[in-house]
Mevalonate kinase (Tribolium castaneum), 396 residues
Amino acid sequence: MSKIRVSAPGKVILHGEHSVVYDKLAVAASLGLRTRLEYCEEGAGLRVEFGDLGLTQCYNFKDVHQLLSTQIPLTQPTAYYNLTHPELLDHDKITEIVEKFVDLNRHEPKQRQALVSFFYLFFAIVGSTDSNLSDGFKLAVRSDLTVGAGTGSSASFAVAIAAFLLHFVKVKKFKSKNLYKSLDLNVDNLQNFDTTELDLVSKWAFQSERIIHGTPSGVDNTICTFGGLVSFRKGTRPQKITLSSKITLILIDTNTPRDTKTLVGKVATKRAKYRPIIDAILDAMDHTTISALDYFQKMETSDVSGETYDALGELADLNQNLLRCLGVSHPKLDQACEILATFGLHCKLTGAGGGGCAICVVPPSVKGVEKAITELKLNGFGAVLTDLGGCGVRVD
Ligand SMILES: Nc1ncnc2c1ncn2[C@@H]1O[C@H](COP(=O)(O)OP(=O)(O)OP(=O)(O)O)[C@@H](O)[C@H]1O
Ligand SMILES: C[C@@](O)(CCO)CC(=O)[O-]
């Protein structure tokens, strides 16, 4: 085994960004755009290449072995832990250890977040096993997604890493170290991930999202792991929606960078100051998503009528206005909505907002979509047509 390839999709949130952090419903779907990770054995030591961040970094095995031999900080006795129990990690202490290892001063913020996320997962997963890394290897990550634009680049990255590490432990047949609980992985299935393994990948990716987002809801890691179209509410199992016909949308990129953690923090600050007002907005968002879900569920069984698309358009407008009230829109997002309105189309931001991407569901009956796309591009936007619901994480 000299190569492993794993990929995970990006995502769009159709309804429920921000409100999902406060236990409201979200509906999200995977995209055809993916993050790809390639592992190959070469050289000496560990070489990390995060091409989208312009980062290549080499670590010698002496330092890597020292990290992996450090006891993993846990909230329970060591005998309860193995890599199937990420919920037992002492998150802050592990982050501290990894931040020291990564030498934060040498990197810019995006690179830091990515390296800390990667080594967090590497330390807590591989460090719990009897791994005896002796052959040098390279890990290269590349994504079709714009980094930091609301299409789940961080979750897609985290899911690809978590899935790779789980697969790596299986392929290498590593066991738990003696001090940890014994490990019973299904090493006969190396083609893909079963549902239990997907649950585990999603849980590990959630830990990584805690580093990048602070207080993630879990919707992004869920959809980037399982793929398809799902409804999601924190603390409950995600429900899959199987459409009888495809949904096409325009994915609009404002080319305005922003940072999810800052935007989630902005909403939290506003809520602390104006609790009843913000809670009323979040409740309204919940109702918007519940109504939209109703229409998506109709699409499971019957042919989609013009009325369904009209309602989905109105709900998109409603939610965009509610998101604007939360303070997470941006003049470029508002401009995209205005341009598309002149073509009779409805648009809303997707993900954390503040720039990044917007989406516009395209009813099959609408003519002139190409003209709308041209107009967006003339105004400096990126715009592509894409279908919802690419497959989840997989071994390629
Ligand atoms: N392809 C990638 N390679 C390395 N790191 C990545 C990659 N994609 C994302 N990241 C990490 O994720 C961070 C971006 O996360 P952020 O949550 O702000 O954006 P997003 O996931 O695209 O947006 P949203 O959460 O709203 O969907 C980057 O700063 C980087 O650390
Ligand atoms: C803004 C947010 O709701 C979606 C980011 O894609 C944050 C989250 O759910 O963790």
